[in-house]
Amino acid sequence: MDTFLGFDAVMLARMQFGFTVAFHFIFPAVSIGLASFLAVLNGLFLWTKDEAYLRLFKYWLKIFAITFAMGVVSGITMSYQFGTNWSVFSDIAGPVIGPLMAYEVLTAFFLEAGFLGIMIFGRDKVGPGLHMFACLMVAVGTAISATWILSVNSWMQTPQGFAVAENGQFVPEDWWAIIFNPSFPYRLAHTLTAAYLTTAFIVGGVGAWHLLRGQRENPGVRTMFSMAMWMAAIVAPVQIFLGDAHGLNTLEHQPAKVMAMEGHFESHPDGAPLYLFGIPDQEAQELKYAVGIPKLSSLILKHHLDAPLDGLDTIPRDEQPPVAVVFWSFRVMVGIGFAMLGIGMWSLWARFRKRLFEAPWLHRAALVMGPSGLVAVIAGWITTEVGRQPYVVYGALRTAEAHSPLGASAVGASLIAFVVIYFVIFGAGVAYILKLMHHAPALGERGVRVEPGPIRTAGVTPQNQMRESGHDIAPETP
Fold first, then answer.
1. Are 27 and 92 in a shared domain?
2. Pairing state of beta strands 274-281 and 3-4?
3. Which three-class secondary structure state does DSSP give residue 292?
4. Residue 24 lies in a domain
5. Taking a C-beta distance cutoff of 8 angstroms, is the pair 151, 179 a contact?
6. pLDDT digits (tens, 9 = 90+) for 181-198
7. Looking at the domain assignment, is residue 186 inside a domain?
8. Which of 1, 121, 175, 369 has the fewest Cβ atoms surrounding its Cβ within 10 A?
9. How many domains is the chain built from?
10. What is its EC number (predicted)?
11. Are 337 and 239 in contact (CB under 8 A)?
Protein backbone atom coordinates (compact mmCIF):
# COMPACT_ATOMS: atom_id res chain seq x y z
CA MET A 1 0.00 0.00 0.00
CA ASP A 2 1.28 3.47 -0.92
CA THR A 3 2.03 5.42 2.25
CA PHE A 4 3.55 8.75 3.29
CA LEU A 5 5.06 9.00 6.77
CA GLY A 6 3.18 5.83 7.65
CA PHE A 7 -0.27 7.07 6.52
CA ASP A 8 -2.21 5.95 3.47
CA ALA A 9 -3.87 8.37 1.04
CA VAL A 10 -7.31 8.12 2.68
CA MET A 11 -6.01 8.98 6.15
CA LEU A 12 -3.90 11.82 4.78
CA ALA A 13 -6.91 13.23 2.89
CA ARG A 14 -8.96 13.03 6.08
CA MET A 15 -6.20 14.77 8.04
CA GLN A 16 -5.98 17.52 5.41
CA PHE A 17 -9.72 18.12 5.37
CA GLY A 18 -9.85 17.99 9.17
CA PHE A 19 -7.04 20.52 9.49
CA THR A 20 -8.49 22.98 6.97
CA VAL A 21 -12.02 22.69 8.36
CA ALA A 22 -10.85 23.16 11.95
CA PHE A 23 -8.89 26.24 10.87
CA HIS A 24 -11.83 27.54 8.85
CA PHE A 25 -14.50 26.81 11.46
CA ILE A 26 -13.10 29.22 14.05
CA PHE A 27 -13.59 32.23 11.76
CA PRO A 28 -17.30 31.74 10.89
CA ALA A 29 -17.94 30.83 14.53
CA VAL A 30 -16.69 34.30 15.46
CA SER A 31 -18.07 36.25 12.48
CA ILE A 32 -21.60 34.84 12.93
CA GLY A 33 -21.71 36.05 16.51
CA LEU A 34 -19.87 39.32 15.85
CA ALA A 35 -22.21 40.26 12.99
CA SER A 36 -25.21 40.02 15.32
CA PHE A 37 -23.30 41.76 18.13
CA LEU A 38 -22.46 44.66 15.80
CA ALA A 39 -26.08 44.96 14.64
CA VAL A 40 -27.21 45.11 18.27
CA LEU A 41 -24.56 47.73 19.13
CA ASN A 42 -25.52 49.88 16.16
CA GLY A 43 -29.21 49.62 17.01
CA LEU A 44 -28.56 50.57 20.63
CA PHE A 45 -26.53 53.58 19.55
CA LEU A 46 -29.29 54.80 17.22
CA TRP A 47 -31.86 54.28 19.97
CA THR A 48 -29.99 55.76 22.95
CA LYS A 49 -27.36 58.00 21.29
CA ASP A 50 -24.93 56.62 23.89
CA GLU A 51 -21.38 57.14 22.65
CA ALA A 52 -20.21 53.92 24.33
CA TYR A 53 -22.19 51.80 21.86
CA LEU A 54 -20.75 53.64 18.83
CA ARG A 55 -17.28 53.31 20.33
CA LEU A 56 -17.73 49.58 20.70
CA PHE A 57 -19.22 49.25 17.21
CA LYS A 58 -16.17 50.84 15.61
CA TYR A 59 -13.83 48.85 17.84
CA TRP A 60 -15.27 45.43 16.96
CA LEU A 61 -15.99 46.33 13.33
CA LYS A 62 -12.28 46.23 12.51
CA ILE A 63 -11.94 42.80 14.12
CA PHE A 64 -15.05 41.55 12.33
CA ALA A 65 -13.77 42.70 8.93
CA ILE A 66 -10.52 40.76 9.33
CA THR A 67 -12.26 37.68 10.72
CA PHE A 68 -14.81 37.69 7.91
CA ALA A 69 -12.08 37.96 5.27
CA MET A 70 -10.07 35.09 6.74
CA GLY A 71 -13.20 32.97 6.95
CA VAL A 72 -13.96 33.51 3.26
CA VAL A 73 -10.41 32.70 2.14
CA SER A 74 -10.07 29.60 4.31
CA GLY A 75 -13.50 28.39 3.15
CA ILE A 76 -12.58 28.64 -0.52
CA THR A 77 -9.41 26.57 -0.14
CA MET A 78 -11.32 24.00 1.91
CA SER A 79 -14.05 23.56 -0.70
CA TYR A 80 -11.52 22.83 -3.43
CA GLN A 81 -10.76 19.55 -1.68
CA PHE A 82 -14.11 18.20 -2.82
CA GLY A 83 -12.63 18.08 -6.29
CA THR A 84 -9.05 17.17 -5.42
CA ASN A 85 -9.04 14.66 -2.55
CA TRP A 86 -12.72 13.65 -2.58
CA SER A 87 -13.73 13.58 -6.25
CA VAL A 88 -15.56 10.25 -5.90
CA PHE A 89 -17.68 11.70 -3.12
CA SER A 90 -18.39 14.77 -5.26
CA ASP A 91 -19.41 12.56 -8.17
CA ILE A 92 -21.69 10.30 -6.14
CA ALA A 93 -23.24 12.85 -3.74
CA GLY A 94 -22.93 15.91 -5.98
CA PRO A 95 -26.55 15.87 -7.26
CA VAL A 96 -27.68 16.36 -3.63
CA ILE A 97 -25.02 18.53 -2.00
CA GLY A 98 -24.15 20.63 -5.06
CA PRO A 99 -27.46 22.53 -5.24
CA LEU A 100 -27.52 23.09 -1.48
CA MET A 101 -24.07 24.66 -1.51
CA ALA A 102 -25.05 26.75 -4.54
CA TYR A 103 -28.09 28.02 -2.63
CA GLU A 104 -25.72 29.10 0.17
CA VAL A 105 -23.79 31.25 -2.30
CA LEU A 106 -26.89 32.69 -3.98
CA THR A 107 -28.90 33.48 -0.86
CA ALA A 108 -26.29 34.12 1.84
CA PHE A 109 -22.91 34.98 0.39
CA PHE A 110 -24.33 37.43 -2.14
CA LEU A 111 -26.41 39.04 0.63
CA GLU A 112 -23.37 39.44 2.86
CA ALA A 113 -21.18 40.69 0.01
CA GLY A 114 -23.82 43.17 -1.12
CA PHE A 115 -24.18 44.88 2.26
CA LEU A 116 -20.76 44.30 3.84
CA GLY A 117 -19.21 47.37 2.22
CA ILE A 118 -22.07 49.58 3.37
CA MET A 119 -21.76 48.19 6.88
CA ILE A 120 -18.02 48.82 7.06
CA PHE A 121 -17.63 52.07 5.12
CA GLY A 122 -21.08 53.57 4.77
CA ARG A 123 -22.03 55.06 8.13
CA ASP A 124 -21.35 58.63 6.97
CA LYS A 125 -22.35 58.06 3.36
CA VAL A 126 -25.80 56.40 3.21
CA GLY A 127 -27.59 57.62 6.34
CA PRO A 128 -28.31 55.82 9.60
CA GLY A 129 -31.38 53.93 8.36
CA LEU A 130 -29.72 52.24 5.40
CA HIS A 131 -26.56 51.63 7.40
CA MET A 132 -28.59 49.88 10.11
CA PHE A 133 -30.36 47.82 7.43
CA ALA A 134 -26.97 46.80 6.03
CA CYS A 135 -25.83 45.67 9.49
CA LEU A 136 -28.96 43.57 9.85
CA MET A 137 -28.54 42.02 6.39
CA VAL A 138 -24.96 40.99 7.10
CA ALA A 139 -26.07 39.40 10.38
CA VAL A 140 -28.95 37.62 8.67
CA GLY A 141 -26.64 36.55 5.83
CA THR A 142 -24.20 34.85 8.21
CA ALA A 143 -27.08 32.92 9.78
CA ILE A 144 -28.47 31.88 6.38
CA SER A 145 -25.01 30.75 5.30
CA ALA A 146 -24.73 28.57 8.40
CA THR A 147 -28.21 27.20 7.71
CA TRP A 148 -27.35 25.86 4.24
CA ILE A 149 -23.96 24.48 5.25
CA LEU A 150 -25.43 22.74 8.28
CA SER A 151 -28.22 21.32 6.11
CA VAL A 152 -25.56 19.72 3.90
CA ASN A 153 -23.65 18.38 6.89
CA SER A 154 -26.79 17.14 8.59
CA TRP A 155 -27.87 15.30 5.43
CA MET A 156 -24.50 13.54 5.43
CA GLN A 157 -25.20 12.52 9.05
CA THR A 158 -28.85 11.53 8.61
CA PRO A 159 -29.43 11.13 4.85
CA GLN A 160 -32.94 10.85 3.46
CA GLY A 161 -35.00 12.00 0.47
CA PHE A 162 -32.70 10.49 -2.17
CA ALA A 163 -32.40 7.42 -4.34
CA VAL A 164 -29.42 5.61 -5.85
CA ALA A 165 -29.34 5.82 -9.66
CA GLU A 166 -28.08 3.08 -11.94
CA ASN A 167 -24.69 4.80 -12.19
CA GLY A 168 -24.38 4.82 -8.38
CA GLN A 169 -25.11 8.53 -7.91
CA PHE A 170 -27.37 9.80 -5.14
CA VAL A 171 -30.20 11.62 -6.86
CA PRO A 172 -32.74 13.81 -5.01
CA GLU A 173 -36.34 12.65 -4.73
CA ASP A 174 -37.68 14.98 -2.03
CA TRP A 175 -35.85 18.27 -1.45
CA TRP A 176 -37.88 19.07 1.65
CA ALA A 177 -36.77 15.77 3.20
CA ILE A 178 -33.16 16.41 2.17
CA ILE A 179 -33.00 19.95 3.56
CA PHE A 180 -35.02 19.29 6.72
CA ASN A 181 -33.45 15.94 7.51
CA PRO A 182 -33.89 14.50 11.03
CA SER A 183 -30.76 15.99 12.64
CA PHE A 184 -30.84 19.39 10.89
CA PRO A 185 -32.97 21.44 13.36
CA TYR A 186 -30.95 20.22 16.35
CA ARG A 187 -27.58 20.76 14.68
CA LEU A 188 -28.56 24.23 13.44
CA ALA A 189 -29.76 25.42 16.85
CA HIS A 190 -26.77 23.89 18.65
CA THR A 191 -24.19 25.33 16.25
CA LEU A 192 -25.64 28.84 16.00
CA THR A 193 -25.91 29.06 19.77
CA ALA A 194 -22.30 27.85 20.02
CA ALA A 195 -21.24 30.68 17.68
CA TYR A 196 -23.00 33.28 19.81
CA LEU A 197 -21.45 31.87 22.99
CA THR A 198 -18.02 31.77 21.37
CA THR A 199 -18.30 35.45 20.48
CA ALA A 200 -19.63 36.34 23.93
CA PHE A 201 -16.63 34.80 25.67
CA ILE A 202 -14.16 36.44 23.29
CA VAL A 203 -15.81 39.81 23.92
CA GLY A 204 -15.95 39.08 27.63
CA GLY A 205 -12.30 38.00 27.66
CA VAL A 206 -11.23 41.25 25.97
CA GLY A 207 -13.33 43.26 28.41
CA ALA A 208 -11.84 41.35 31.36
CA TRP A 209 -8.32 42.03 30.05
CA HIS A 210 -8.90 45.76 30.04
CA LEU A 211 -10.65 45.73 33.41
CA LEU A 212 -7.61 43.98 34.89
CA ARG A 213 -5.40 46.65 33.28
CA GLY A 214 -7.19 49.43 35.14
CA GLN A 215 -9.83 50.47 32.59
CA ARG A 216 -12.75 50.13 35.04
CA GLU A 217 -14.07 53.61 34.29
CA ASN A 218 -13.97 53.16 30.50
CA PRO A 219 -17.64 53.03 29.38
CA GLY A 220 -16.82 50.88 26.35
CA VAL A 221 -14.97 48.30 28.44
CA ARG A 222 -17.74 48.18 31.04
CA THR A 223 -20.42 47.83 28.38
CA MET A 224 -18.71 45.03 26.46
CA PHE A 225 -18.01 43.01 29.60
CA SER A 226 -21.53 43.48 30.92
CA MET A 227 -23.15 42.46 27.63
CA ALA A 228 -20.88 39.41 27.31
CA MET A 229 -21.71 38.22 30.81
CA TRP A 230 -25.44 38.63 30.19
CA MET A 231 -25.02 36.46 27.09
CA ALA A 232 -23.10 33.82 29.06
CA ALA A 233 -25.64 33.74 31.87
CA ILE A 234 -28.65 33.44 29.55
CA VAL A 235 -27.38 31.39 26.62
CA ALA A 236 -25.11 28.84 28.34
CA PRO A 237 -28.07 27.06 30.05
CA VAL A 238 -29.96 27.12 26.73
CA GLN A 239 -26.96 25.58 24.98
CA ILE A 240 -26.78 22.74 27.49
CA PHE A 241 -30.47 22.03 26.92
CA LEU A 242 -30.00 22.10 23.13
CA GLY A 243 -26.98 19.80 23.43
CA ASP A 244 -29.05 17.30 25.38
CA ALA A 245 -31.80 17.38 22.73
CA HIS A 246 -29.21 16.95 19.99
CA GLY A 247 -27.73 13.97 21.85
CA LEU A 248 -31.12 12.26 22.07
CA ASN A 249 -31.60 12.80 18.33
CA THR A 250 -28.15 11.31 17.69
CA LEU A 251 -29.00 8.30 19.84
CA GLU A 252 -32.03 7.66 17.64
CA HIS A 253 -30.28 8.00 14.28
CA GLN A 254 -26.58 7.33 14.97
CA PRO A 255 -26.43 5.06 18.03
CA ALA A 256 -22.82 3.97 17.42
CA LYS A 257 -21.69 7.61 17.77
CA VAL A 258 -23.38 7.92 21.17
CA MET A 259 -21.88 4.60 22.29
CA ALA A 260 -18.43 5.98 21.45
CA MET A 261 -19.19 9.30 23.17
CA GLU A 262 -20.25 7.46 26.33
CA GLY A 263 -17.46 4.85 26.18
CA HIS A 264 -19.99 2.02 26.27
CA PHE A 265 -18.20 -0.97 24.78
CA GLU A 266 -20.60 -3.34 26.52
CA SER A 267 -24.40 -3.30 26.65
CA HIS A 268 -26.18 -2.47 29.90
CA PRO A 269 -29.58 -4.17 30.19
CA ASP A 270 -30.33 -2.73 33.67
CA GLY A 271 -29.10 0.84 33.38
CA ALA A 272 -25.83 2.24 32.00
CA PRO A 273 -23.29 4.26 34.00
CA LEU A 274 -22.10 7.71 32.98
CA TYR A 275 -18.33 7.38 32.59
CA LEU A 276 -16.57 10.58 33.56
CA PHE A 277 -13.07 9.39 32.72
CA GLY A 278 -11.36 6.33 31.30
CA ILE A 279 -8.96 5.12 28.64
CA PRO A 280 -10.78 3.55 25.68
CA ASP A 281 -9.04 0.43 24.33
CA GLN A 282 -10.76 -0.34 21.05
CA GLU A 283 -8.61 -3.38 20.37
CA ALA A 284 -9.65 -4.97 23.65
CA GLN A 285 -13.15 -3.43 23.43
CA GLU A 286 -13.06 -2.07 26.97
CA LEU A 287 -12.81 1.21 28.85
CA LYS A 288 -9.83 0.87 31.15
CA TYR A 289 -9.55 2.68 34.50
CA ALA A 290 -13.17 3.80 34.14
CA VAL A 291 -14.61 6.26 36.66
CA GLY A 292 -18.36 6.55 36.39
CA ILE A 293 -21.67 7.20 38.10
CA PRO A 294 -23.98 4.14 38.04
CA LYS A 295 -27.10 4.33 35.88
CA LEU A 296 -26.75 8.08 35.18
CA SER A 297 -26.24 7.61 31.43
CA SER A 298 -29.57 5.78 31.21
CA LEU A 299 -31.24 8.59 33.15
CA ILE A 300 -29.81 11.23 30.76
CA LEU A 301 -30.41 9.37 27.50
CA LYS A 302 -33.61 7.44 28.33
CA HIS A 303 -34.88 9.44 31.35
CA HIS A 304 -35.05 6.28 33.45
CA LEU A 305 -32.41 4.86 35.78
CA ASP A 306 -32.97 1.23 34.73
CA ALA A 307 -33.44 1.84 31.00
CA PRO A 308 -31.31 -0.57 28.91
CA LEU A 309 -28.63 0.83 26.62
CA ASP A 310 -26.85 -1.07 23.87
CA GLY A 311 -23.08 -0.94 23.62
CA LEU A 312 -20.53 -1.28 20.86
CA ASP A 313 -20.65 -5.05 21.34
CA THR A 314 -23.79 -4.85 19.16
CA ILE A 315 -21.90 -3.04 16.36
CA PRO A 316 -19.49 -4.88 13.99
CA ARG A 317 -15.86 -3.84 14.40
CA ASP A 318 -15.69 -2.35 10.90
CA GLU A 319 -18.75 -0.17 11.66
CA GLN A 320 -17.38 1.35 14.87
CA PRO A 321 -16.00 4.93 14.95
CA PRO A 322 -12.60 5.67 16.55
CA VAL A 323 -13.77 5.57 20.16
CA ALA A 324 -10.85 7.32 21.89
CA VAL A 325 -11.08 10.46 19.74
CA VAL A 326 -14.87 10.73 20.09
CA PHE A 327 -14.82 9.91 23.81
CA TRP A 328 -12.32 12.66 24.70
CA SER A 329 -13.47 15.35 22.28
CA PHE A 330 -16.99 14.98 23.66
CA ARG A 331 -15.73 15.48 27.21
CA VAL A 332 -13.76 18.55 26.23
CA MET A 333 -16.88 20.08 24.67
CA VAL A 334 -19.15 19.24 27.60
CA GLY A 335 -16.58 20.32 30.17
CA ILE A 336 -16.19 23.73 28.54
CA GLY A 337 -19.97 24.06 28.31
CA PHE A 338 -20.37 23.63 32.07
CA ALA A 339 -17.43 25.98 32.70
CA MET A 340 -19.25 28.60 30.61
CA LEU A 341 -22.35 28.04 32.72
CA GLY A 342 -20.26 28.55 35.85
CA ILE A 343 -18.88 31.86 34.58
CA GLY A 344 -22.39 33.01 33.69
CA MET A 345 -23.74 32.19 37.17
CA TRP A 346 -20.70 33.78 38.82
CA SER A 347 -21.28 36.98 36.84
CA LEU A 348 -24.93 37.07 37.96
CA TRP A 349 -23.82 36.84 41.60
CA ALA A 350 -21.27 39.62 41.08
CA ARG A 351 -23.86 41.75 39.30
CA PHE A 352 -26.35 41.18 42.13
CA ARG A 353 -23.70 42.39 44.60
CA LYS A 354 -22.95 45.36 42.30
CA ARG A 355 -19.35 44.21 41.94
CA LEU A 356 -19.34 43.09 38.30
CA PHE A 357 -16.52 45.50 37.46
CA GLU A 358 -14.69 45.12 40.80
CA ALA A 359 -14.31 41.33 40.84
CA PRO A 360 -10.73 40.58 39.74
CA TRP A 361 -11.03 36.80 40.10
CA LEU A 362 -14.10 36.80 37.88
CA HIS A 363 -12.16 38.91 35.38
CA ARG A 364 -9.23 36.48 35.47
CA ALA A 365 -11.56 33.55 34.93
CA ALA A 366 -13.30 35.32 32.04
CA LEU A 367 -9.92 36.12 30.48
CA VAL A 368 -8.85 32.48 30.68
CA MET A 369 -12.20 31.42 29.20
CA GLY A 370 -11.89 33.92 26.33
CA PRO A 371 -10.83 31.37 23.68
CA SER A 372 -12.81 28.51 25.25
CA GLY A 373 -15.63 28.76 22.72
CA LEU A 374 -13.21 28.17 19.85
CA VAL A 375 -11.91 25.02 21.56
CA ALA A 376 -15.46 23.85 22.25
CA VAL A 377 -16.70 24.25 18.67
CA ILE A 378 -13.68 22.38 17.29
CA ALA A 379 -14.15 19.63 19.87
CA GLY A 380 -17.83 19.43 18.98
CA TRP A 381 -17.01 19.25 15.29
CA ILE A 382 -14.53 16.43 15.93
CA THR A 383 -17.16 14.55 17.94
CA THR A 384 -19.70 14.90 15.15
CA GLU A 385 -17.46 14.08 12.20
CA VAL A 386 -15.22 11.40 13.66
CA GLY A 387 -18.26 9.81 15.28
CA ARG A 388 -19.79 9.39 11.81
CA GLN A 389 -16.92 7.17 10.65
CA PRO A 390 -16.45 4.86 8.81
CA TYR A 391 -19.01 6.68 6.64
CA VAL A 392 -18.88 10.00 4.84
CA VAL A 393 -22.62 9.71 4.10
CA TYR A 394 -23.87 7.77 7.07
CA GLY A 395 -24.92 4.25 6.18
CA ALA A 396 -24.70 4.95 2.44
CA LEU A 397 -21.11 5.79 1.41
CA ARG A 398 -17.94 4.77 3.23
CA THR A 399 -15.09 7.22 3.59
CA ALA A 400 -12.62 4.73 2.12
CA GLU A 401 -14.75 4.56 -1.04
CA ALA A 402 -15.13 8.35 -1.45
CA HIS A 403 -11.58 9.60 -1.90
CA SER A 404 -9.80 10.41 -5.15
CA PRO A 405 -7.39 7.93 -6.75
CA LEU A 406 -4.32 9.83 -5.57
CA GLY A 407 -0.99 8.64 -4.25
CA ALA A 408 -0.21 9.12 -0.59
CA SER A 409 2.86 11.21 -1.39
CA ALA A 410 0.81 13.72 -3.39
CA VAL A 411 -1.76 14.13 -0.61
CA GLY A 412 0.94 14.29 2.04
CA ALA A 413 2.88 17.00 0.20
CA SER A 414 -0.23 19.17 -0.14
CA LEU A 415 -1.04 18.61 3.55
CA ILE A 416 2.39 19.88 4.58
CA ALA A 417 2.00 22.87 2.28
CA PHE A 418 -1.40 23.68 3.83
CA VAL A 419 0.00 23.50 7.36
CA VAL A 420 2.94 25.80 6.60
CA ILE A 421 0.96 28.35 4.58
CA TYR A 422 -1.99 28.44 6.98
CA PHE A 423 0.16 29.04 10.04
CA VAL A 424 2.12 31.80 8.30
CA ILE A 425 -0.78 33.68 6.67
CA PHE A 426 -3.55 33.11 9.18
CA GLY A 427 -1.10 33.31 12.06
CA ALA A 428 -0.28 36.85 10.93
CA GLY A 429 -3.99 37.66 10.75
CA VAL A 430 -4.66 36.34 14.23
CA ALA A 431 -1.64 38.26 15.57
CA TYR A 432 -3.06 41.47 14.12
CA ILE A 433 -6.47 40.78 15.66
CA LEU A 434 -4.81 40.29 19.06
CA LYS A 435 -2.97 43.58 18.54
CA LEU A 436 -6.29 45.34 17.91
CA MET A 437 -7.75 43.74 21.03
CA HIS A 438 -4.78 44.87 23.10
CA HIS A 439 -5.89 48.51 23.18
CA ALA A 440 -9.10 49.53 24.90
CA PRO A 441 -11.96 51.16 22.97
CA ALA A 442 -11.30 54.90 23.15
CA LEU A 443 -13.41 58.01 22.83
CA GLY A 444 -13.68 58.83 19.13
CA GLU A 445 -12.74 55.28 18.02
CA ARG A 446 -12.00 55.57 14.31
CA GLY A 447 -13.27 52.24 13.04
CA VAL A 448 -12.13 51.01 9.63
CA ARG A 449 -10.08 53.66 7.86
CA VAL A 450 -11.59 54.91 4.62
CA GLU A 451 -9.15 55.99 1.96
CA PRO A 452 -10.05 59.00 -0.24
CA GLY A 453 -12.25 58.02 -3.16
CA PRO A 454 -11.82 58.85 -6.83
CA ILE A 455 -11.69 62.56 -7.72
CA ARG A 456 -14.68 63.91 -9.63
CA THR A 457 -13.83 64.70 -13.23
CA ALA A 458 -16.82 66.63 -14.55
CA GLY A 459 -16.32 70.39 -14.24
CA VAL A 460 -13.30 70.09 -11.96
CA THR A 461 -10.18 72.13 -12.53
CA PRO A 462 -6.92 72.06 -10.55
CA GLN A 463 -7.85 75.48 -9.16
CA ASN A 464 -11.23 74.22 -7.85
CA GLN A 465 -9.57 71.17 -6.32
CA MET A 466 -7.18 73.41 -4.41
CA ARG A 467 -10.05 75.57 -3.14
CA GLU A 468 -12.00 72.48 -1.97
CA SER A 469 -8.93 71.18 -0.17
CA GLY A 470 -8.56 74.47 1.73
CA HIS A 471 -5.41 75.78 0.05
CA ASP A 472 -5.04 79.52 -0.56
CA ILE A 473 -4.54 80.46 -4.18
CA ALA A 474 -3.67 83.73 -5.84
CA PRO A 475 -6.55 85.62 -7.51
CA GLU A 476 -6.93 85.05 -11.21
CA THR A 477 -5.45 87.75 -13.44
CA PRO A 478 -7.60 89.15 -16.25
1. yes
2. unpaired
3. strand
4. yes
5. yes
6. 999 999 999 999 999 999
7. no
8. 1
9. 2
10. 1.10.3.-
11. yes
